[in-house]
Write a structure and sequence with these properties.
With about 90 residues, the chain is mainly beta. It has a domain of about 50 residues: UDP N-Acetylglucosamine Acyltransferase, domain 1 (3 Solenoid). Helices cover about 0% and strands about 30% of the residues. Keywords: Transferase. InterPro entries: Hexapep (IPR001451), Hexapep_transf_CS (IPR018357), Trans_hexapeptide_repeat (IPR050179), Trimer_LpxA-like_sf (IPR011004).
Length: about 90
């Protein structure tokens, strides 16, 4: 799993209620969470899923899916880039 800078994994669905159980998100193997992304309590991020920077994830992200936006929407992952970074 990759967790970008300032990403937030939240675990309290009702911060003002003392009786609310804490439930953090589940992040599967090889998932990537971008910088400043927020994953809400109880959300499941599937294997090899990618959460874009600044996304706010309010529902489960299926495996091998891109989650982008606030609130995050699911999209297919783009094709892998080939070759190096030569310009």
């Amino acid at each position: 799993m990759f967790l970008g800078p300032h990403a937030a994994l939240t675990n309290d669905p009702y911060p003002l209620r003392e009786e609310a159980p804490l439930e953090g998100p589940t992040i599967e193997d090889d998932a990537s969470i971008g910088a400043n992304a927020t994953i809400l309590p109880g959300v499941h991020v599937g294997e090899r899923a990618f959460v874009a920077a600044n996304a706010v994830v309010t529902e489960d992200v299926p495996p091998e899916t891109l989650a982008v936006g606030a609130p995050a929407e699911h999209q297919p992952l783009p094709e892998r880039l080939q070759g190096g970074n030569d310009a």
